[in-house]
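Reposting from the mailing list since nobody answered there.

I have sequence plus structure tokens for a pair of proteins and want to know whether others read the tokens the same way I do. The first protein:
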Amino acid sequence: MKQRSISWSGRGHDYSETEINVVVEAMRNADPLTQGKYLTEFENRFRKSPQRIIL
């Protein structure tokens, strides 16, 4: 059987300073057991998203 390889480009996305700052803030301030406001914000945005997948 012929082996195939997939070349990965490494990083597929250049992150903006805003995106990096949001992640850093979450890492510094989030409640590790529940993710507090970040979980609620994600759930609210996901609920309103027209692109969500319903299984």
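The second protein, same order (residues first, tokens after):
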Amino acid sequence: MLQNALPVKTLIFLMLLTLIAMGISAYALKTYDNYAYTTTTINVADGWVKVYSDSTSRGNSKAKKIEEDTTSGFDCMLREGHEHPYCIMLNWITNNEFQGLDFSEYKYMRITGSYESPSENDFLRISLRHFNMDYTQMYQVHTYKFNSIELQRKDIQGEIIIDLEQLFVPHWWMSMMRGADIDSFVDITNVPLIELSTGTNAAFGEHKIRVSKFEFDKIVVPIELVYEYILIGWSIYILFVFFCLSIYFAFNLRRRTIEEKTLIQINNALSTHSAQLEIFNKIDQLTGILNRAGMKAKMMQCTENNTVPLTVVMLDLDHFKKINDTLGHQSGDLVLSKLGEILNDFIQDDESVSRFGGEEFMILMPYKTSNMIIDRLESLRISIEQTDINIGKTVTTSMGVASTSNHIDFKKLIRSADNALYVAKNNGRNCIKIEGQ
């Protein structure tokens, strides 16, 4: 009696656990991209909202704050009169201007709102503004670090999902803060403020922005892991039933062997899928080279192995914004894709290249000094300039180079390479500058 009752009781128990697990994954957690998430919701109407335009700096644009039930926003009349006309909405999400929220462990940001403008080519800039005592000045909002992304108007209707790994620090803000000790890494560990503003080269005329809430999603567990636990539970149950039946059928070895092989195949398939997913998440889909996450993994390997000497090259497309503005984003994407092919062919087996943000790329060259690779980089620069990308104009690049022969400090190396890149930009572009030379 007891031997017959145990499998039945265990079956009922496992069925209850399965229903609970499926209920949690279906209702308690948000799921997409094969992951389960918990969500932090920020209602715009609950915070403090400030709206202003370039009229505060002698421009002619006008911005009017709009509050409608649970929605806030602004009506902006963008006019000529300022070098870069703009309207801005500041959303303070905490009661302390210097103590914000930490979004570093969050994967996605979702926005519920709308954007109307004269042209569907207009962009809306969304920035998570970071406060850091090392460079942020009290009550000087422009010194809060920009972690930005620009979205085209047609994508801002209803809910839009933003991958926070796609945020970048704009070059124009880095240039404005050049005197401060700032790196180009995205930092969203202390965000008291979310800014929405008209994007680059927005069309003159009426712009209307409405936002009701911001939602931030944090990964809890891969969905495949939830189902794997369910599968393991059921597998244990199957083995348990086989064990009970073995009392009567002399441990049916052949059947148990078949089941064990099945489990091994399932686990191998899950492992293969997990490995493929990890590789996919580290590749920039437009250029086919590493993304920022993939490059971070390479940098960690260099740090752990102390691969010195080590050289970092920061490469930036010259006048890329003009290509997007005059020829369209399809041409811009073509340039980025072709440059990815050239850079992938350029690197050697022990080297790595990634798209670091926007039109900026990073090359990691272990066991090499600046002088050892300068001729290769010059050949790369000439090769890019001479490549016909079928957009009707020549594409050139500027490069900044920095090396170390001792302790590896990537923040310092990247900052040094960025400084050299700024020198190359200011010296007419289409050239290579080595840090300190």
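Reply #1 (J.P.):
I read it the same way you do. The chain has nine helices and 17 strands.
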